[in-house]
Automatic annotation (TrEMBL):
It comes from Trifolium medium. This is G-type lectin S-receptor-like serine/threonine protein kinase RLK1-like. InterPro entries: G-type_lectin_kinases/EP1-like. The keyword Signal applies. Keywords: Kinase, Lectin, Receptor, Serine/threonine-protein kinase, Signal, Transferase. GO terms for molecular function: carbohydrate binding; protein serine/threonine kinase activity. The keyword Signal applies.
Amino acid sequence: NQTIYRATLDFDGVFRMHAHYINNGSDKIIETLPKSSKTCEVKGVCGFNSYCTFDDDKQLCICLPGYKFIDENETTLGCERNYFKAECMGDKDGAAFYNMFPMNNIVWGDHPYSESGDISSEQNCSFACLVDCNCWAALYEEARCKKHGFPFRYVRRTREADESNTAFLKVGKNSVENWKQNDTIFSPQPAPIKTTNSGIEVQKANGHWEHGAE
């Protein structure tokens, strides 16, 4: 029995070992790395401003809320904003233009540009991002607020709660409902109404966080 082996590193970042059996002319993939259930862990498998997830055993790239596919026929190319970017005021006036949209079960593979242990809650972390001109997403993890700038890279969504976090994304107020209608894989979970020490009310409304003066 003679077999010819061929190894490929494909566009999706997966290493595949192929076998061609000379006797019967058949071909077979005999090994993949990472395994099919782990392909979302390959950095760059989905483009900027999208996240990688699974629907059953099918890997998907889905736009983050506030974004749309650059090319709907090539979803791995990433996504672009579907709202106009407002002039940044650098204070709570940003609440007039943006909401902080929560997404559960998020794993972020990129490094934040800012990380602070002085912010006491998820809600305060969300508000700190809202008023920061450079911040477009925040994660509150192990009592630390991690801010991410634009564009977003290496984001994946999982059902494994033991390794995931809630991310808060800054999005145009008119873009949230469109995203919610198109996201059929996961839906955001509700969060409690809370008030920050700074007098800024943070309330859960229609699936997103809103901020305003009391």
